């Protein structure tokens, strides 16, 4: 009887061994998923950007202060003192020519770029190509051949809820190595509009990708990547009461970034789009003014200035017209028009819906460049 039990136990163990091995193989297979593959595809081209800002201040020379403290009349000779303030950001190589995309605000206050480093520790020699403050995008170019680069995808077909990966170098100088950090989340919202007050009203923080992937200081300029390993955005900002991640991160859509980068590479600057007119909010006018001007629209932008040589004027726009929509977007404040304008490019098509004393009209023209106007 004992011998029979022993044989049964041995058979059971023999059967269990391949089952356990099969389970291990199955688990191992799930470890290498789409997210792992995407990170391995993109991370080698992510760079750490270290910059230095030289902050100067005037102080009193202590020698003269001590000496003349012996007297009632104090003469203090000011002298200059410079303090180097270091900061860190991220970026990524996106083509075979060594071009690097990052945020303008990563470089904005920099007096010099102290280093740009690949994950393997290789320092790159770079040159400045151009930057656009309003879209918060800058382009550098690394010298060298055979540098890694990442494919740029599209932000047009992003789906709320799909996986995205934020890659960058938060607190990179504290880690003592250039390896990028990754965080995973989903697209929380698309085409997110941010208050005009964000960015001082001068930066186009509109039509953003919102994600709950952790974004922290130092992530700025790094890529937001989909599960295919394609860059779909540039990690740019967070909403936080503490300064750390709270699940409210925002990225510039890559479709806009590609167009801005193309202009910076070709022209060394972003050509300023220009509508050629100005206006004020109908809602800010008094009832008397509305009656005197014959305005019947309840909301929109009253055209108060227009240049005769502008494309808008040539298309038929007149003083006193009320613009209610630009390219299908409702406008009620002059900055609404500004944001739409800044998001366009020279040569883009513009459609205006206007109210001319109660009559609805549609006009169209092509965006022109501001320079020389």
Core attributes:
3 domains; 35% strand; 20 strands; globular; six-stranded antiparallel beta barrel; Pdz3 Domain; 373 residues; alpha+beta; Thrombin, subunit H; six-stranded antiparallel β-sheet; 9 helices
- Extract low-pLDDT stretches: 62-76
N-to-C CA distance:
104 Å
Question: Over all CA atoms, what is the radius of gyration?
Answer: 29 Å
The profile of the biggest β sheet is: 6 strands, antiparallel
**Into which percentage range does the β-strand content fall?**
35-45%
What does this structure look like?
The protein is of the alpha+beta class and 373 residues long. It has three domains: 43-74 and 83-142, Thrombin, subunit H (Beta Barrel), CATH 2.40.10.10; 163-267, Beta Barrel (Thrombin, subunit H), CATH 2.40.10; 273-369, Pdz3 Domain, CATH 2.30.42.10. The chain has nine helices and 20 strands. The protein has helices at residues 2-31, 34-42, 62-68, 104-107, 172-175, 254-267, 287-293, 311-314, 334-343; strands at residues 46-60, 78-93, 99-102, 112-117, 126-132, 137-142, 163-168, 181-192, 208-211, 223-226, 231-238, 249-253, 273-274, 277-281, 301-306, 322-326, 329-330, 349-356, 359-366, 368-369. A six-stranded antiparallel β-sheet has the order 4-1-2-3-6-5. It is globular, with a radius of gyration of 29 Å. 35% of the residues are buried. Residues 62-76 have low confidence and may be disordered.
Provide a short characterization of the protein structure.
By secondary structure, the chain is an alpha+beta fold.
Indicate the topology.
Layout: H1 2-31, H2 34-42, E1 46-60, H3 62-68, E2 78-93, E3 99-102, H4 104-107, E4 112-117, E5 126-132, E6 137-142, E7 163-168, H5 172-175, E8 181-192, E9 208-211, E10 223-226, E11 231-238, E12 249-253, H6 254-267, E13 273-274, E14 277-281, H7 287-293, E15 301-306, H8 311-314, E16 322-326, E17 329-330, H9 334-343, E18 349-356, E19 359-366, E20 368-369
Antiparallel strand pairs: 1-2, 1-4, 2-3, 3-6, 5-6, 7-8, 7-10, 8-9, 9-12, 10-11, 11-12, 13-20, 14-15, 15-16, 16-17, 16-18, 18-19
């Amino acid at each position: 009887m004992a011998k029979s039990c022993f044989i049964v136990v041995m058979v059971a163990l023999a059967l269990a061994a391949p089952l356990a091995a099969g389970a291990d193989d199955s688990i191992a297979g799930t470890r290498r998923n789409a997210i792992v593959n995407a990170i391995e595809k993109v991370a080698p081209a992510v760079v750490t950007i270290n910059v230095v800002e030289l902050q100067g201040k005037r102080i009193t020379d202590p020698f003269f202060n001590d000496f003349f403290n012996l007297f009632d009349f104090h003469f203090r000779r000011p002298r200059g003192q410079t303090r180097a303030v270091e900061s860190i950001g991220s970026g990524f190589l996106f083509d075979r020519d060594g071009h690097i995309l990052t945020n303008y605000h990563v470089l904005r206050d920099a007096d010099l770029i102290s280093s740009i480093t690949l994950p393997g520790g290789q320092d790159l020699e770079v040159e400045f190509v151009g930057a656009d403050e309003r879209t918060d995008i800058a382009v550098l170019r690394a010298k060298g051949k055979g540098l890694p680069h990442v494919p740029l995808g599209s932000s047009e077909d992003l789906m709320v809820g799909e996986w995205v990966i934020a890659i960058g170098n938060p607190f990179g100088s504290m880690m003592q190595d250039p390896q990028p950090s990754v965080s995973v989340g989903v697209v929380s919202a698309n085409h997110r509009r941010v208050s005009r007050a964000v960015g001082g009203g001068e930066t186009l923080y509109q039509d953003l990708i919102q994600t709950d992937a952790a974004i922290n200081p130092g992530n700025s300029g790094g890529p937001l990547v989909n599960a295919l390993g394609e860059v779909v955005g540039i990690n740019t900002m967070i909403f936080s009461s503490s300064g750390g991640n709270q699940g409210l991160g925002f990225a510039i859509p890559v479709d806009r970034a590609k167009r801005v980068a193309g202009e910076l590479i070709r022209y060394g600057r972003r050509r300023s789009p220009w509508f050629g007119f100005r206006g004020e909010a109908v809602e800010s006018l008094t009832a008397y003014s509305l009656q005197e001007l014959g305005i019947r629209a309840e909301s929109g932008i009253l055209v108060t200035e227009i240049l005769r040589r502008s494309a808008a004027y040539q298309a038929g726009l007149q003083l006193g017209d009320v613009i209610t929509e630009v390219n299908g977007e409702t406008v009620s404040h002059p900055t609404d028009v500004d944001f739409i304008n800044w998001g366009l490019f020279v040569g883009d098509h513009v459609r205006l819906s206007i109210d001319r004393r109660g009559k609805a009209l549609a006009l169209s023209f092509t965006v022109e460049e501001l320079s020389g106007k």
